[in-house]
Amino acid sequence: MALLLLLLVLTVSAVSADEDAFVGVNIGTDLSDMPHPTQVVALLKAQQIRHVRLYNADRGMLLALANTGIKVAISIPNEQLLGIGQSNSTAANWVSQNVVAHYPATNITTICVGSEVLTALPNAARVLVSALKFIQSALVASNLDKQIKVSTPLASSIILDSFPPSQAFFNHSWNPVLIPMLNFLQSTGSYFMINVYPYFDYMQSNGVIPLDYTLLKPLPSNKEAVDANTLLHYSNVFDAMVDAAYFAMAYLNFTNIPVMVTETGWPSKGDSNEPDATLDNANTYNSNLIKHVLNNTGTPRHPGISVSTYIYELYNEDTKPGPVSEKNWGLFDANGVPVYILHLTGSGSVLANDTANQTFCTAKDGADAKMLQAALDWACGPGKVDCSPLLQGQACYEPDNIFAHATYAFNTYYHQMGRTPGSCDFNGVATITTTNPSHGSCIYLGSGDKNGTLLNSTIPAMDSKSSYSPAKFVYGNVFSAAAYIVVGVIGWIAVLL
To answer: Which of 125, 216, 329, 403 is most buried per CB count within 10 Å?
Structure first.
């Protein structure tokens, strides 16, 4: 058996992807106070998130995402699957209303047909492949089949005997669905989509799987797991599960279908019987995952071929049923405040706030006082910076001079805008520094706090004509936090490009 599997390994052809691997984010909606689509998109833009997956094809979200360049995976909810899988015309109507009506303004790249259908809705399994084919036919008819991929996310539990990966195989009872599905994915150049949750593997292992092995922490070679059939070394559960998917497909003679991870993550809070659902572990897992995907390491079976991955998820979903952990997979709360600040040093050009690479925006030494005043007035006016901490008696009033006050306003605006190029200029009187200007109880955004970003409107660009009087600033422009939603610039990824 081992020899047979080794031969199988040697015959597996290289898998390639159409584009560089990316890290995206899933957007669930089980929130008691779901942000408006324009607020969601403002958050995505501020965090430089370039790939998202929706669990439906919500018209408001698709309209808000238009002309942003953000690449969007939309979904056919499971409750609509039976109708679409039994009617070509129903599928065509769905594509017309949810794809053709929005493309190309909204950059739809993927259609996910259902979610974990085989395990979540097994009675619809019989029409799953028909649904895939009907949706594909509708795309062909609209001349969009080359631009948009069609697939279906599956639960990793359909893979049996997943370690060592070389012994992995699909639950044979699903072969009548999986084989034609894999034929479809291969013929259309699409992805095998799988949801990978090392957290659950760890919880169910009763201590057999070490925590560090699930958190993608660097391990010495003598701590790595070795596949005895292939002698490949595995340092984390994520890679092992991805390779298990490759081997399971190879077992059915499919060797050139790339894997995409449509869900993965770690909860930041749990019940008393979930002691490892913590902020630190969630931060560690997602930070290490982002770096791992983006550094193009690939997996032991396919080195150098990274797997595009969507993190679960953007928001904590407080109305999600189940244990406390089910409500706490999000990177942000409903107000857009980050649950934790990711640690992304070494992962290339990364989003907004890598805490190990803090930058601040300050007034330039020697800048003209009148220009500083004009820029300060603009920041506290059209720039929508909350300048109330600069009022007399407040934390950042002292030192009471134009340089210090302008620095506070400039830095706040810079971080609200996600530290994007050009957001620290102010007609040439501002500059970027790594020196933290915080002092006493006056804490500047970017100091490891919950950094801010504007969510409910688009901040206008400053021009030389912008001017607000000091009186207006003091008396008429004390913006409260209600004027914008404070969020941490945990940065999302340039790779999300």
So the answer is: 329
Assess whether pLDDT exceeds 90 at residue 464: no
Write down the pLDDT at residue 97: 97
Assess whether 329 and 382 both reside in one domain: no
> Which residue among the candidates 79, 116, 313, 398 is catalytic per the annotation?
116
Chain-centroid distance of CA 239 in Å reads 19
- What's the rounded Cα separation, in Å, for the pair 395 and 440? 8
Number of domains in the chain: 2
In a domain, 198, yes or no: yes
Flag whether 34 is in a domain.
yes
Catalytic residue among 263, 274, 313, 326: 263
Supply the pLDDT for residue 13. Answer: 40
My answer on whether 139 and 227 are in the same domain is yes
Average pLDDT over residues 460-470: 39
Establish whether the linkage from the previous residue to 313 is cis, with ω within 30° of 0.
yes
| Active-site residue flag, 313 | no
* Burial profile 13-48: b = 16 or more Cβ within 10 angstroms, e = fewer: eebebeeebbbbbbbbbbbeebbebbbbbbbbbbbb
CATH code (residue 100): 3.20.20.80
pTM of the model: 0.72
Backbone angles phi, psi at 31, to 5 degrees: -120, 140
Residues 238 and 152 in one domain: yes
The answer to which of 173-187, 250-264, 335-349 has the lowest mean pLDDT is 335-349
Would you call 263 a catalytic residue per the annotation? Answer: yes
CATH number for the domain that contains residue 461: 1.20.58
Domain containing 270: what range?
A: 2-340
